[in-house]
Specification:
This protein has about 60 residues and is of the alpha+beta class. The protein is about 40% helix and about 15% strand. The protein contains 3 helices and 3 strands, in the order αββαβα. The chain has a 3-stranded antiparallel beta sheet. The longest helix is centred in the last third of the chain and has 10 residues. The radius of gyration is 15 Å and the shape is elongated.
Length: about 60
């Protein structure tokens, strides 16, 4: 049985925590960043959890 390859796009976008949760970064971070308020920029820097349904699919792309 061959090894399952990691989906490189998913590898760059998602991260699995130590407890097994799937987290992602928020969207429009770099475009027009100087026009955004400091509070908004801080909020964009945080990672956010993924829904259970999506996490199940994403874990198939990230076997290791």
């Amino acid at each position: 049985m061959p090894k399952i390859k990691t989906h490189k796009g998913a590898k760059r976008r998602f991260h699995i925590t130590g407890t097994g949760k799937v987290v992602r970064t928020k969207g429009p971070k770099s475009h027009f960043r100087r026009n955004k308020a400091a509070r908004v920029k801080r909020m964009l820097d945080k990672k956010i959890g993924v829904s259970k349904a999506m996490a199940k699919k994403i874990k198939l792309f990230l076997p290791s």
